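Protocol step 4 of 6: structure prediction from sequence.
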Amino acid sequence: MSLPDPVPLYGPEYKRDPYPLYEQMRAAGPVHRVLFPSGVTAWLVTGHAAAQRTLADPRLGKNHALGNDRWRERASIMPEPQHSQLQVHLLHQDAPKHTAMRRLITDAFAPRRVEELRPRFQEMADALVDAMPGDAPVTDLVQCFAARFPFQVLAEVIGLPPHLAARFRRDWGKVVAPVGPTDPGRPAYEALLRELQEYIAEVVADRREHPGDGLLSRLVAARDEGELSPEELDSMIFQLLVAGQEPVTNQITTALVSLMRHPEVLERLRAEPELMPAAVEELMRLDSAFELTTWRFLAEDADLHGTRVPAGDSVIVSLCAANRDPERFPDPDTLDLDRAQGPHLAFGHGVHFCPGAALARAEMQVALGTLVARLPGLRLAVDDDELRWIPAVLGRGTAELPVAFEGPVCPRSRG
C-alpha cells in the first residue's frame, strides 16, 4: 500500500499503535514528509541506522532561528513574550551555547549522585503505594503513582523546596502541546503559559532569597554572575519542570501497559527482580515515551539519506520507529528480557543525548520494581482498546491507567 504525501501523524488509531505505520515507512525508505495536527509539515527519519546518523549530523542545528518562513508560520505558535522567554533552553541550542548551558546541569544528574539518592526514591515510591486503597476495585495508576512519583523525585534532585513543589500544577505541562492561534482552546493555553511563567518567577525569587546547594540555586547564581541571560534561566527552569518529569510519567504507563499485555514477563520480573535493569531498557526500546525528537534544521539545501531537504524545513527523528527496526533488533515487536542487541535510542544520541538518562533509568527501575513487587495480580481493569492515549505530538503515554490487583498491597521490602 502506497503512503500518502505527506503522511499524517495524528488521530486516535495512530496514537494507540503507531508501529504498523512506522513499519510501512521504514520499508519504503528512511525519510518521509509528514503532517502534524497543527498543519506543520516535517521530514521524518525512521530507520535505526539513519536515525543514529541524523542525531549526530553536524549539518543539523536545533536553534529555532534556522527555521524557514514556512515552518515559522505554523510551528512558532507559542505567543510572545513567552516564546522568546521560555524557548531558549538546551533543546533549542547549538554549540558553543549548548555546551556551556549543559555543563551547568550535568552534576545534578550524574550517575553517582543518582545512585546516592536511590534509597530516597524508594521511600517515595513505597509511600505512594502505601497510600493506595487496597480494597478499591479499580485504581488509576497515573493519578495514584505515575503522575506523582517523577515530580517528587525531580523536586528532590533539583532542589525545589516543598512549599513551591506543593503549588506546581501538572496542567502546566500542557503548554508544550501545540495549540494554534485559531484553536478555541487558545485562551486557556495562553492562561496556562502566563501562570507557569509567574510560577517560574516565584521559584527564581525564592532561590535568590533563600539559596541552597541544589541545581535551581546554582542556576540562579549563574544568572546573577552573568553566565546565563534571564531568558535562558527561565527557559532552563521551564525545561526542568516540564520535560523533567512528564516523560517519566508517560514511560511508566507505556512500560506497565507492555508488562500487563505480557503477564508471563511480569511474573518473571516478580520472581527475578535482579532482571529489572535489563527489563527497563527493553521496555523503553519497545515503546518509548519520547516517540519523536524535537526539530532540527539544515542551514542550506542538502541531501538527507537520499532525499533532498530544503534549508529551514524541520527534520524530526522517530525514536520509536528506530527502536523497532528489524535490521537492528531481530523480532523487534517482541518483549524480550534477554535481548542482547545493544543500546536503544530512547534517550537520543549525540550531543543532545538526554542529560537526565541516569535519573530516568533509576526512576523507572524503582517505580516498576515497587509496583511489580507490591501489587499482586496486577492487571488492566479495562479492555486494552479502551485505554486513552494522550494526543501529544512528540510523546506517548496513557492519560489514565485503570488497573486491578489482589489487595491489600504487599509490605515493603526489607532489602
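Step 5 (inspection) to follow. The chain is about 45% helix and 10% strand.
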